[in-house]
Amino acid sequence: MTRNMKKLITSYKATKKQLKSMLAQVTNSDQRASADCVHGTDQEALRSSLAASIRDVEYAILWLETGRQPDNQRGIERRSKEQREILLDPFKMQSYVTPGTGGCRVGVSDAERDLIDFYLQFVTEKERECYLMVHGSGFTHEKAAEMLFLSRGNISTLLSRAQQKIEFAKNLTAILAMAVFFLISRGAKTLNYERLFVWGRSHL
């Protein structure tokens, strides 16, 4: 396991601890509710969202520690067409690979480039090379196989693994955003937990 991966696991364990603290804080707030706090069924929905977020983080930690997707019964190469759709905008991927290309209809901002860099950290060097060749440069599987001295079957396998890992990374991004928002806001007297978690869960 690499040093960066160990740091990532440590970070998500810290996030899990923070989420549990938030859940305890929301539960305790029932006894000191005010006009600025969430009440009734909304409070229960909020607790449910927090509990779900904790499960998501635990799932992510298990995946990172074992290197395998927990409870995955079907590889991405055996999923339906809808499940195998490209997770990153192909036009943005083209601009990412070749910045400033005049023929590309969609540009990539610095923030979007950083986000793509983050997603691609989860794939191996060979998976990244294959993914960028096919989805960034527009090469066919056959051409990519020829250039990388691999079989078309190997190209399909590398792309499938990269897609699965990017999907995982996109889910983690929403969880991380929630944790960052909490850290920024924890000094405030009143936190709008409801809006925070409705937003976070809608992006998972």
UniProtKB/TrEMBL annotation:
GO terms in the biological process aspect are: DNA-templated transcription initiation
Lineage: superkingdom: Bacteria
Gene Ontology terms for molecular function: DNA binding; DNA-binding transcription factor activity
Domain RNA polymerase sigma-70 region: start-end pairs: 123-166
Keyword entries, A-Z:
DNA-binding
Q: Does the entry feature the keyword DNA-binding, yes or no? A: yes
Looking up InterPro entries in the UniProt record yields: RNA_pol_sigma70_r4 (IPR007630), RNA_pol_sigma_r3/r4-like (IPR013324), WH-like_DNA-bd_sf (IPR036388)
Name the UniProt record assigns to this protein: Sigma factor-like helix-turn-helix DNA-binding protein
Task: Name the species this protein comes from.
Answer: Brevibacillus laterosporus
